[in-house]
Amino acid sequence: MLAIVVIFNVLISLLCLYVAWQVWNLRQALANTTEIVTAAERSVNDVLHHAPDAIGKAQLGTNQLRQSYQRLELQIKQIRQVLMLLSLVNSIWRSTVDYVFSSKASSRHKSLKLSREKNYSPDQLHNLKYRRQLRKRKP
After folding, report:
1. Exposed/middle/buried for residue 104 (C-beta within 10 Å: 0-12, 13-18, 19+)
2. How many domains does one find in the chain?
């Protein structure tokens, strides 16, 4: 009976030794994991420590860029309006100049025609009018 109790106690002590050894290994693994997580947290903190300042500066720069872009868009719109106005003035000027020159040329042409036609005989006038009609019919 004493032998059974001794064997039983030895088995219990071996089991406790195994459990203690496993707890010791777990503690070592947890200590290593803690060190790794702490080092990672320090690295992230070092990297992101100045991030709020950088983000603020970037937001400020972005807002300034947007305002500059809006001013440039307004200036482009104004320049387009000025160019359209100049184009309109140019077309009006050209049409006025063309009208003046065409009316002067037309009046000169008519007066020249009339002065020439005064020198023609009735038969020559008839032939001239006939040729003009033929020219108008041809496309």
Report:
1. exposed
2. 2
Q: Which domain holds residue 32?
A: 1-48
d(CA 99, CA 92): 10
Could you read off the pLDDT of 101-137 as tens digits, one per residue?
Answer: 666 655 555 555 555 656 667 777 777 777 777 777 7
Instruction: Name the token pair of 97.
Output: 């100049």
CB 69 within 8 A of CB 61: no
39 and 1 inside one domain: yes
Q: Which two tokens stand for residue 53?
A: 């300042």
CA–CA gap between residue 40 and residue 131 (Å, rounded): 103
| pTM exceeds 0.85, yes or no | no
Collect contacts of 120-129 with beta carbons under 8 A, ≥24 apart: none
| 76 found inside a domain | yes
Give the three-class secondary structure for 117. helix
CA trace torsion 65, 67, 71, 76 (10° rounding): 50
